[in-house]
Amino acid sequence: MKSRSWLIVPGNSDKRLGLAIGTGADIVVVDLEDTVPVSEKPRARHLAAEWLAAHRQQVLEQPRLGRWVRINALEAGLSREDLAAVMPLAPDGLILPKSCGPDSVRQLASEVYECEQAYGIAPNSTRIVPVVGENPRAALRIADYAQSAHQRLSALTWNAAGLCAAMGRSGNRTADGGWPDAARYVRAQALLSAHAGDVMAIDAPHEDFEDEEGVRRAAQAACADGFAGMMAIHPGQVAAINAAFTPSPDELHWARAVVEVFEANPNMGSLPLNGRMVDRSHFTVARRTIGMFEREGRASEDPRRQPILRPA
């Protein structure tokens, strides 16, 4: 399944849910948490179930769209009602906001397992992506996910808003538009821990959905940093995210050449290729590029993208 763009759609918006299927997003995340007022949560659960049901057979026949749900945080006391509403429709996975650490994932996994048994869903087929580091204590425990990974763990993602609010910060950005130090720490820890635990890292969304150039730069930077995908809060962000996380034909051609030359010479630390020297770091990046292509199933046709590695 593709995993470049994760479009968050408010669960209480019938209109936006109806449009989500045609946005080009790889994964639609029906939100029952932050974008939904408390008074609207019962309606959001109902609409989420309807949406999951409407698109379930289509996805089963031709897997191409991820059907995920962001439930409410465990400590909010609403997550069991969320699960009762959506699990009968077998979502592909659940986003767990405000996760405190691996124990939160295990707690949710236990409840999900009971739901799978009750509704005849294949055991352990429902994946979990925790939102890490949304408060200072949770931020200091991000590395624990790599040390005690759960079999349902599909990726790690993060979000600056909760952390900044917990620390009493008035905004999520510095004066020059960058992330504040605590947010940069959480982002780096989420990325490192995901790679250490051999799961995907999904970057936080670009908050200004009207800033098309900003979304494009943020998505390209996320891909270059080693993220596997990026959250989106508006359909207009999807195309830029998909383009950033899809290898171009030049990237793919060069990556295959690098992999081929190292596989033919497994004991070499560096080798000449097309007039330049490549080493094991290039080999690592090349395998990641090919992995992205295999996950997406096709290469980008956008000639404007510059390859990660290009022969001299």
UniProtKB/TrEMBL annotation:
**Protein known as:** CoA ester lyase
GO molecular function, a single term: lyase activity
| HpcH/HpaI aldolase/citrate lyase domain mapped to chain residues | 4-235
Q: Which InterPro entries match?
A: Aldolase/citrate-lyase_domain, Citrate_lyase_beta/mcl1/mcl2, Pyrv/PenolPyrv_kinase-like_dom, Pyrv_kinase-like_dom_sf
The cofactors named for this UniProt entry are: Mg(2+)
State the family named in the UniProt similarity comment for this chain. Belongs to the HpcH/HpaI aldolase family.
User: Per the record, a Pfam family?
Assistant: HpcH_HpaI
Q: State the organism of origin.
A: Novosphingobium organovorum
Q: Does the keyword Metal-binding apply?
A: yes
Keywords on record = Lyase, Magnesium, Metal-binding
